[in-house]
Amino acid sequence: MRARRLATAAIAAFALILTTFAASQAQTSTTKQSDALAAYDRALGDFKSILAERRGQIEAKQPLPNLPGQAIYLARVAVISSYKDLTDAMPSRIGRPNKFEIPPAYFDADIEPLIDEYGGLFDLMEAPPAGAQASATPFKDVVDLAVAIARAKGLAPVHAEAAGRISLGLFFAETNGKQNVRNGRSNTYMGSLQTGPSEDRNGRRKWEAIKPEIATADPELNARDDKEEARARGADHRFNHWTAVRDGLMNAHADLFREIPVIVKTLPDPIDQMKLFELIQIVPTPTRSALKSGNLLDYRVSNPTIMKHLRNNSIFAFGQADRARTSASFREILAAMWLFNRKFERAMAKYAEIRAR
């Protein structure tokens, strides 16, 4: 009898432990959900507040702070990040698809109007400066320059066309396809391909070296170049669309055009090709190393500075789980570049339109 009572007591004690543990887990889960919801509501309120503040300053023609886009950019990051943390804690909050093609786990489609306002404010803050030299054919210019450079680098026509398509993707990635824009988050990077002064000078030097081959192969494009060079003389070349694109491509991307035959074989999806060349803009050294490795997609980066650069460009930037990453393969990096998808789809459509003409 005593043994039976002891066994019964032990079972009761174990049941109490299980019940207490379950209650504790439920309480922890509820607390986590409550904290995540509060964090999202707070981030959303801050986002609305800074959008309203910046709109008010612009409409009242008040002086804007230095880097006026940085605060609203960080507020947008906080909204997306806190929403991802919320849906991690409460999967039932994952809603419908949104027009920006952001994965629904990261974005509540009900706040689409706020992102429209965000984009509208950047359009105003990054408007071209007075005296910027626009082109009547900005998209065709990008394609024509890239194709000409690729041909001068020895590429076959089909791969030169890929260079044109990829370069148009870069234009959309950097500026949403807007020419001669400023930068609301930087005092250094400007123009149609968002280059700094030293990058622009480097691109110009490289262009001068290849220009004789361009002149022989494409006299019409060379004549256009002479005209634009004369127009831009004495001004910042980054605010002449033609010279900005030309110098930007020559600075960072033209040397890798020779790799396009291998790249298109490894990455048959044109959007992945654009993503890879955008990574040349963001993290050039590891991207070049990955290409040279012979195993591009499985090449892994773990340098904290590189991971920081990726996050600063909206890759692994949203939510605690993503930001906790200490390394990533290029396969994972390309998959995480979903904020670029819509821009590259627009570039693909514009390229098809150009070539259809």
SSE blueprint:
Blueprint (H helix, E strand, L loop, with lengths): L1 H58 L8 H22 L22 H14 L12 H15 L4 H19 L21 H21 L1 H14 L8 H13 L6 H7 L3 H13 L1 H10 L6 E2 L2 H9 L7 H4 L4 E2 H7 L4 H16 L1
Antiparallel strand pairs: 1-2
Structure description:
- It is a single chain.
- The protein contains 15 helices and two strands.
- The protein has helices at residues 2-59, 68-89, 112-125, 138-152, 157-175, 197-217, 219-232, 241-253, 260-266, 270-282, 284-293, 304-312, 320-323, 330-336, 341-356; strands at residues 300-301, 328-329.
- The radius of gyration is 26 Å and the shape is globular.
- The chain starts with a helix and ends with a helix.
- 34% of the residues are buried.
- The mean pLDDT is 93.
DSSP strand tally = 2
- Which class do the helix and strand fractions yield? mainly alpha
Alpha carbon gap, first and last residue: 96 Å
Mean pLDDT: 93
The oligomeric state is single chain
Q: Approximately what portion of the residues adopt beta-strand conformation?
A: under 5%
Number of helices: 15
Rough outline? globular
Low-confidence stretches: none
Query: What Rg do the Cα atoms give?
Result: 26 Å
